[in-house]
Design goal:
alpha/beta, seven-stranded antiparallel beta sheet, eight-stranded antiparallel beta sheet, binds 2-deoxy-2-amino glucitol-6-phosphate, 20 helices
Length: 609
């Protein structure tokens, strides 16, 4: 997704902006640019390619000034090119603007503006905004921005500067995040927190359909129709270090290793181990409401959807409530049957995924109660939900989601215990046992991480594979899906996750000596059946890599390769079993020379449909 960074203060803007854009690289992009104001003029420097190319451009032709805006572009409308990169400028070059989002009615606006004499340089949707602002500009940039946005449909996070109003950055947002960082005598704007956390922890979140004028010492917020808005700053608890690599080769590896600590932090203040009492500060659900619901719908995308799938198995088994798990984009456009007895649980690391937000709006419109499980405080999803449970994973920079996934699982597990207790479907003794099982996970996870070298060695044998199959049963099935997603998104090897029982209904035709088959074979109610599946793969010459419970000899005899994980109950096993699969995908991607933290074509947060 695109990234926006802006600076206004007492120092040269370009160094701050370039540094800020580098912190936004993980969001995925294909071009970058900067615009500054100096000595009465707007200067623009932009190009297709990575920020390194932009830096070369800025070295050849520096641009100065203490106010500026920058952008990393993830192409939606208009291919990656110098002319399509942002910032875009008005016909007279006096206004520069950057945008994250999609302007859905841009063709109609472009036609009208062209008829009125505006000359377009790019094929992007964004450029219509700067020409609209130019059309309405009569000396007040904020007012012109508001008038322009009245004509726009779609999503946007926008920042603009103009020659006639030095010392002001005007921003606006709808459906794409934009944060203002406040420091003494300088201010920052950014698409997300990691880019500004090193300068300030005092931030203001713009809400949808708000416009803000940012000056060095002042920020004024108003609604699209001009009503003033008062908004108190939020203090971010993340430490700047957490947004750095900390000595690891990649953010993905760092975040894999952060998982035990992230889980400890996520569960620490939410459960009383002796009484198994679970409490979430911002859940905003009364016990009578929890008893009132007759179904739960989980909705999410990607890895978060896999966490939701584990939630289905847990909630139905322990809280005895019917659960469905919906892909957000499918749910929102399907005219779903939803009412006040439905609880929708949205799961999202970023809290900005457009389809997940859309699903929430649809469910709310149909009368459902909505809670979200999210990793970013104050994100759009958190603010759109009736209640929120934050995972305390800290900033997840690597595009491939890892610690967000396991902390989501920990939250869903705790929520299951809470629901089971409130709905009286979970005996107290069982609840206490479940809480104790969860408390053991971080230490057990550290034992799995200690096998990193074994997994790296294993990746040596398979990094030239062209396909892979991941099989699991029960809660091993969502883990199989997640393992396959990790491999395909960071190493570009085609990988599929499948319910192991389904193999005979098709995928078994794929089995040959070139197809590595990863099997989740931990002890549990379906263990004997999964052993049978391993036999079926072996009988057809397939190669089996098994994730098995420590001490298991039977799997060892049948599989070609084995990675042991500490024995645990089925309910918590996904948190352990996924770790070797994360490391396997990581080391294969590294050996294939892939861009692990910013895989091609992918974005960390998909804020467009
Ligand atoms: C996971 O590794 C991917 N980066 C992707 O599937 C991601 O989980 C998905 O885009 C959802 O993102 P969210 O959790 O921020 O909503």
């Amino acid at each position: 997704m695109c990234g926006i960074f802006g600076y206004i203060g007492k120092s040269e803007a370009v160094p701050f902006i370039v540094e800020g854009l580098k912190k936004l690289e993980y969001r995925g992009y294909d071009s970058a640019g900067v615009a500054t104001y100096e000595h009465g003029r707007i200067f623009v420097s932009k190009c297709e390619g990575k920020i390194a190319e932009l830096e070369e451009l800025l070295t050849d032709k520096p641009i100065g000034g203490e106010m500026g805006i920058g952008h990393t572009r993830w192409a939606t409308h208009g291919s990656p090119s110098d002319v399509n990169s942002h910032p875009h400028t008005s016909c007279d070059g006096k206004i520069a603007l950057v945008h994250n989002g999609i302007i859905e009615n841009y063709l109609e606006l472009r036609r009208k503006l062209s008829e009125e004499g505006h000359k377009f340089k790019s094929t992007t949707d964004t450029e219509v905004i700067v020409h609209l602002v130019e059309k309405y500009y009569k000396g007040d940039l904020e007012k012109a921005m508001r008038q322009a946005l009245q004509e726009v449909t779609g999503s946007y996070a926008i920042a603009a500067i103009c020659e006639q109003e030095p010392g002001k950055i005007v921003c606006a947002r709808k459906g794409s995040p934009l944060i203002v960082g406040l420091s003494d005598n300088e201010a920052f704007i950014s698409s997300d927190i990691p880019a500004i956390i090193k300068y300030t922890s005092k931030v203001i979140y713009l809400e949808d359909e708000e416009v803000a004028t940012i000056q060095r010492k002042k920020i004024q917020i108003s609604t699209l129709d001009g009503k003033p808005v008062k908004r108190k700053p939020t203090l971010i608890s993340w430490d700047p270090e957490s947004a750095e690599k900390g000595g690891y080769a990649h953010f993905m590896l760092k975040e894999i290793h952060e998982q035990p600590g992230a889980i400890r932090k996520t569960i620490a203040h939410r459960v009383n181990v002796d009484s198994a009492k679970v409490h979430f500060d911002e859940l905003n659900l009364e016990p009578k409401e929890i008893r009132h619901f007759n179904r739960i719908i989980f909705t999410a995308c990607g890895t978060s959807w896999h966490a939701a799938l584990v939630g289905e198995y847990l909630m139905e088994r322990y809280a005895k409530i019917p659960v469905e798990v919906e892909y957000a984009a499918e749910f929102r456009y399907r005219e779903p049957i939803v009412d006040d007895k439905t609880l929708l649980i949205a799961v999202s690391q970023s809290g900005e995924t457009a389809d997940t937000l859309g699903a929430v709006w649809e469910a709310k419109a149909r009368g459902a109660k909505v809670i979200s499980i999210c990793n970013v405080v104050g994100s759009s999803l958190a603010r759109e939900s009736h209640g929120v449970i934050y995972t305390d994973a800290g900033p997840e920079i690597g595009v491939a989601s890892t610690k967000a996934f396991t902390t989501q699982l920990a939250v869903i597990y705790l929520l299951t215990v809470l629901f089971g207790q409130v709905r009286k479907t979970l005996p107290q003794a069982k609840a206490i046992q479940m809480i104790n099982n969860l408390m053991e996970i971080p230490d057990k996870m550290e034992r799995v991480l200690a096998k990193e070298a074994d997994v790296e060695k294993l990746s040596e044998k398979f990094y030239n594979s062209t396909n892979a199959l991941y099989l699991g049963r029960g809660k091993g099935f969502p883990v199989a899906l997640e393992g396959a997603l990790k491999l395909k998104e960071v190493s570009y090897i085609h990988a599929e996750g499948y319910p192991a029982a389904e193999m005979k209904h098709g995928p078994i035709a794929l089995i040959d000596k070139n197809m590595p088959v990863v099997v989740l074979a931990m002890h549990g109610r379906r263990y004997d059946k999964i052993l049978g599946n391993i036999e079926e793969v072996k009988a057809r010459g397939g190669i089996v890599i098994a994730i098995a419970s420590e001490g298991d000899q039977m799997v060892k005899e049948k599989a070609d390769e084995i990675i042991y994980i500490p024995a645990s109950t089925e309910a918590v096993s996904p948190m352990l079993a996924v770790v070797p699969l994360q490391l396997f995908a990581y080391y294969i991607a590294v050996k294939r020379g892939c861009h692990v933290d910013q895989p091609r074509n992918l974005a960390k947060s998909v804020t467009v449909e």
